[in-house]
């Protein structure tokens, strides 16, 4: 099973939503984590305590609570797309562009380092420390 959600989640909530396009079925998704945390796929990814998105076939749109480091800059992930599951590619919409990852990176839920541990051990990385405040 493919998952971008860290192992340490408490609850996943699904709720049907009305959609202006009736042919496109959409579900509101909320994932509650034990707390904010950091993981790494190819780049570092920061999860807030709650991740929200609208779920439809092959995509998450309107993602909130997820940011990705790209060239020393932290950018919000606005969507996650799998256009063709047989392609082996997953796309993160970071607003300016789509970041392409191998789908195999998401076969197992990632381990995620809690925010408390990061504050105590990653002080020298000022760019990321600013996001934690």
TrEMBL record:
Protein name, entry field: DUF538 family protein
Organism expressing this protein natively: Quillaja saponaria
InterPro entries in the cross-refs: At5g01610-like (IPR036758), DUF538 (IPR007493)
SUPFAM superfamilies assigned: At5g01610-like
Domain of life: Eukaryota
